[in-house]
C-alpha cells in the first residue's frame, strides 16, 4: 500500500549529485525528507538508506546508486481519522551514475 506521494521522495533520494558516499547519504536523506514534507506526508520516523557502491565503479563502466526510503506514518494519516496504529511505507529507486563523470 504505497500512496502516490512516495515515488518522488525515493527519486530525489537517489538522484543526489554528490560523488562522495558520505555526502550522498546526507544529501539523499535531506532531499527525501524535504520531499515527504512538501507532499504533506507526516512521517513519525524516516529512514533513508543509500547504496553508493556505483560511485566506486571505474570511469566508463555503467553503474547505479539506489535509495530506499522508509516512512512510518499513522494509519489515521492514510485513511480515516482515529484509526489506531502505524504503517511503514518503503520504496526504492535506482538512478544511473554518469559513466563519464569523475568519481570520488
Q: Which outline best applies?
A: elongated
> Any idea what the radius of gyration is?
15 Å
* Terminal residue distance: 37 Å
Report the count of strand segments. 3
Give the domain tally: 1
**Strand adjacency order, main sheet:** 1-2-3
Spans of at least 5 consecutive residues with low confidence: 1-6
Please, could you describe this protein's structure?
With 104 residues, this protein is of the alpha+beta class. The protein has one domain (6-97). It has three helices and three strands, in the order H-H-E-E-H-E. Strands 1-2-3 form a three-stranded antiparallel beta sheet. Helix 1 packs antiparallel against helix 2 (21-38). It is elongated and about 55 Å long.
Topology:
Layout: H1 6-14, H2 21-38, E1 45-51, E2 63-74, H3 75-78, E3 86-97
Antiparallel strand pairs: 1-2, 2-3
Characteristics:
3 helices; 3 strands; alpha+beta; 3-stranded antiparallel sheet; 104 residues; disordered N terminus
Amino acid at each position: 500500500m504505497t500512496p502516490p506521494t512516495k515515488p518522488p521522495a525515493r527519486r530525489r533520494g537517489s538522484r543526489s549529485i554528490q560523488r562522495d558516499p558520505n555526502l550522498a547519504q546526507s544529501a539523499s536523506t535531506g532531499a527525501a525528507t524535504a520531499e515527504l514534507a512538501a507532499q504533506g506526508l507526516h512521517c513519525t520516523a524516516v529512514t533513508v538508506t543509500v547504496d553508493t557502491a556505483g560511485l566506486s565503479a571505474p570511469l566508463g563502466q555503467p553503474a547505479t546508486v539506489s535509495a530506499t526510503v522508509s516512512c512510518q506514518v499513522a494509519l489515521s494519516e492514510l485513511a480515516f481519522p482515529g484509526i489506531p496504529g502505524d504503517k511503514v511505507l518503503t520504496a526504492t529507486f535506482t538512478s544511473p551514475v554518469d559513466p563519464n563523470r569523475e568519481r570520488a
